[in-house]
């Protein structure tokens, strides 16, 4: 099947199988390794990407569903050498340890801030439920997201 | 990795049913895929055809009427954010925002949740207290049946192979009422869930006593399918604010006595019966507090209160 999709601002036209998963098309087809395959069951959030701004588990999402849509992966967050405010805040807060969950955390946080620019800590925790981190204990991740939310823009 | 399949994208419910009738057991209905694709990846389901129902207009609507109708392909996220749901059935919106996680809610659908009949479904338990009716369409026409008759057992419904779930229709929220939904568990899916809706006499506004004149109570996740518990409902009916604690206790005991609990990963059957008694009491207390206009601040470990 023909897949026409914009990934990180760039248009692609690919020939894919109906049963191709978005995660495999991104990682193996386009070489974007930021989204990780981990639980493979929509539980952990390591494969999170945004499709038209909505967070989805790319491991359990048919690539053809992204046809005609825009996909954002962690590779598309920074603008050139300039980090996205969330990326900067994650570094500043020490919210990254092993880094495996980080791309999913960043994208999920971005989706949340687009919906709710002034979240409470409880809002952040609720939205990040199902985004698992085995290193940080979450506090620093929430600190980082709150730091961006509280920065006047 | 998924095994190869052919993807069909019918534009009408009738066309979808014709495909299902023609393809028989080789076909699976596909909407969000949050349940189906998981089982396909594991090789537990191997359909050679997927019938995508997301392009069927009527399945994607939430419509008002004598009953609030939620289309089968409506996502949990849409329910969560629907002003109409918030107005007509506020508890449905607040339960929707606690289903799984945001990624599943963005993609997973109400119809998929019900048709999959996972015993750990939040929606089926809640919808039983709203006297939900499901609408099905097939080449033989349309039919409606109560949700309780649709969900037959774990991952099993009375839907026939060529039938399509069109919508679920919820009874109107009684005007003088209070409700609560409480789920508990440490895994991704809840260990148990209790939904309770109390109808009250016109007391509150009119300066009366706020007696429970009707109760609907459902327990889910602990047995093969969610069930209403008439004995618990009877125990609650007639209770006044002064006697509601006693009634809550009786309702909890009644629910624990009837559930068909099994030992599994979520706990032993005995444990589940004990926890059902505890959480039925808690859910009734919360609903009773809401009936008095008080939102209880108490939180329970590993539990979600909606």
Q: Can you tell me about this structure?
A:
The complex is a heterodimer of chains A (153) and B (306). By secondary structure, chain A is α+β, with helices and mostly antiparallel strands. Chain A has two domains: 75 residues, Beta-grasp domain (Ubiquitin-like (UB roll), Roll), CATH 3.10.20; 66 residues, DNA polymerase, domain 1, CATH 1.10.150. In chain A, 33% of the residues lie in helices and 15% in strands. Chain A has five helices and five strands, in the order E-E-H-E-E-E-H-H-H-H. In chain A, a hairpin with a 2-residue loop joins strand 3 and strand 4. The mean pLDDT of chain A is 97. Chain B is of the alpha+beta class and 306 residues long. Chain B has two domains: 167 residues, 2-Layer Sandwich (Uridine Diphospho-n-acetylenolpyruvylglucosamine Reductase, domain 3), CATH 3.30.465; 129 residues, 2-Layer Sandwich (Enolase-like, domain 1), CATH 3.30.390. In chain B, 36% of the residues lie in helices and 24% in strands. In chain B, the strands form four sheets. A five-stranded antiparallel β-sheet of chain B has the order 4-5-10-6-7. The relative contact order of chain B is 0.12. The chains are: A alpha+beta (153), B alpha+beta (306). The interface between A and B is medium-sized, with 28 and 22 residues.
Notable traits:
heterodimer, A: 153 residues, alpha+beta, Ubiquitin-like (UB roll), DNA polymerase, domain 1, 2 domains, 5 helices, 15% strand, B: 306 residues, Uridine Diphospho-n-acetylenolpyruvylglucosamine Reductase, domain 3, Enolase-like, domain 1, five-stranded antiparallel β-sheet
Produce the secondary structure layout.
The complex is a heterodimer of chains A (153) and B (306).
Chain A: E1 2-7, E2 10-15, H1 22-29, E3 48-51, E4 54-57, E5 70-72, H2 85-93, H3 102-115, H4 121-127, H5 139-150
Parallel strand pairs in A: 1-5
Antiparallel strand pairs in A: 1-2, 3-4, 3-5
Chain B: E1 6-8, H1 13-23, E2 27-30, H2 36-41, E3 49-52, E4 62-63, E5 68-71, H3 76-81, H4 83-88, H5 90-96, H6 102-107, H7 110-116, H8 122-128, E6 133-138, E7 141-146, H9 147-150, E8 151-153, E9 156-157, E10 164-170, E11 177-184, E12 192-200, H10 203-206, E13 212-220, E14 227-228, H11 230-236, H12 244-258, H13 269-291, E15 303-305
Parallel strand pairs in B: 1-3, 2-3
Antiparallel strand pairs in B: 4-5, 5-10, 6-7, 6-10, 8-9, 11-12, 11-15, 12-13, 13-14
Helix pairs in contact in B: 11-12, 12-13
């Amino acid at each position: 099947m023909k897949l026409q999709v914009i990934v990180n601002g760039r248009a692609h036209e690919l020939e894919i199988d109906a049963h191709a998963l978005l995660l495999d098309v991104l990682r193996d087809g386009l070489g974007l390794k930021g989204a990780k395959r981990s639980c493979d069951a929509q539980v952990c959030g390591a494969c999170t990407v945004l499709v038209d701004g909505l967070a989805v588990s790319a491991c359990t999402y048919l690539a053809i569903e992204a046809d005609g849509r825009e996909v954002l992966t962690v590779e598309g967050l920074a603008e050139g050498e300039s980090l996205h405010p969330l990326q900067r805040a994650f570094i500043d807060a020490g919210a990254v340890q092993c880094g495996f969950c980080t791309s999913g955390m960043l994208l999920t946080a971005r989706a949340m801030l687009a919906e709710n620019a002034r979240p409470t800590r409880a809002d952040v925790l609720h939205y990040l439920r199902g985004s698992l981190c085995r290193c940080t204990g979450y506090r620093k991740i929430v600190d980082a997201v709150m730091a961006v939310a509280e920065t006047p823009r | 990795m998924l095994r190869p399949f052919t993807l069909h994208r019918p534009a009408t419910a009738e066309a979808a049913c014709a495909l299902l009738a023609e393809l028989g057991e080789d076909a699976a209905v596909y909407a969000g895929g949050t349940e189906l694709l998981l089982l396909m990846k594991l090789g537990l389901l191997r359909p050679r055809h997927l019938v995508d129902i997301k392009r069927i207009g009527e399945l994607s609507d939430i419509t008002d009427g004598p009953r609030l109708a939620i289309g089968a392909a409506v996502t949990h996220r849409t329910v969560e954010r629907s002003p109409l749901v918030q107005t007509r059935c506020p508890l449905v919106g607040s339960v929707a925002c606690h289903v799984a996680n945001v990624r599943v809610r963005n993609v997973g659908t109400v119809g998929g949740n019900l048709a999959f009949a996972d015993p750990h479904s939040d929606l089926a338990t809640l919808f039983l207290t709203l006297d939900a009716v499901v609408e099905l369409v097939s080449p033989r026409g349309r039919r409606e049946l109560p949700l309780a008759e649709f969900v037959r057992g774990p991952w099993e419904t009375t839907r026939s192979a060529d039938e399509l779930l069109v919508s679920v229709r919820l009874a109107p929220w009684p005007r003088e009422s209070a409700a609560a939904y409480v789920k508990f568990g440490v895994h991704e899916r809840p260990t148990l869930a209790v939904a309770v809706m109390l109808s009250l006499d016109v007391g509150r506004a009119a300066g009366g006593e706020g007696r429970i004149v009707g109760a609907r109570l459902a327990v889910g996740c602990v047995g093969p399918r969610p069930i209403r518990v008439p004995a618990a409902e009877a125990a609650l009916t007639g209770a006044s604010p002064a006697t509601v604690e006693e009634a809550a206790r009786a309702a909890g005991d009644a629910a624990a006595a009837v559930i068909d609990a099994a030992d599994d990963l979520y706990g032993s059957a005995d444990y589940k019966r004990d926890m059902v008694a505890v959480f039925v009491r808690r859910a009734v207390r919360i609903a009773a507090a809401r009936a008095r206009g008080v939102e209880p601040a108490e939180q329970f470990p590993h539990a979600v209160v909606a």
